Amino acid sequence: MEAATPARAAARRRGRRLRAPATLKEQRDPQPGRRLPQRRIEEDQEEAVFREVVSFTPDPLPVRYYDKDTTKPISFYLSSLEELLAWTPNVEDGFNVALGPPECRQPPLSSRRPRTLMCHDMMGGYLDDSFYHWQYIDIFVYFSHHTVTIPPVGWTNAAHRHGVCVLGTFITEWKEGERLCEAFLAGDERSYQAVARQLVLIAQFFRFDGWLINIENSLSLAAVGNVPHFLRYLTTQLHQQVPRGLVLWYDSVVSSGQLTWQDELNEHNRVFFDSCDGLFTNYNWREEHLERMLGQAGERLADVYVGVDVFARGNVVGGRFHTDKSLELIRKHGFSVALFAPGWVYECLEKGDFFQNQDKFWSLLERYLPTHSICSLPFVTSFCLGMGTRRVCYGQEEAVGPWYHLSAQEIQPLFGEHRLEGNGRGWVQMHCCLEDAWNGGSSLLIRGLIPPEVGNVSVRLFSLQVPVPPKVFLSMVYKLEGPSAVGVALELTTGDAGSCHVGGISALSAETSSRRSPRPLRVPPTKLAKWVGRCGQQLSGGWVQRCYEVNLRGCLLQALFVNFSRPPGSQEEENFACRLGEIQVVDASSLLTPLPQVQAVTVSQVRWQPAASEGESGPAGLRLSCTLHWAYLPPHVRCFRIHCCRGSGGDSPCRAPSEPERPTLLGLAFVNRYRIVDLAVAPAEPGRDGRVEFLVEPIPKEGFLVPRAEWGRAAMLYSTPRT
Question: The whole model's pTM is what?
Answer without folding.
Answer: 0.88
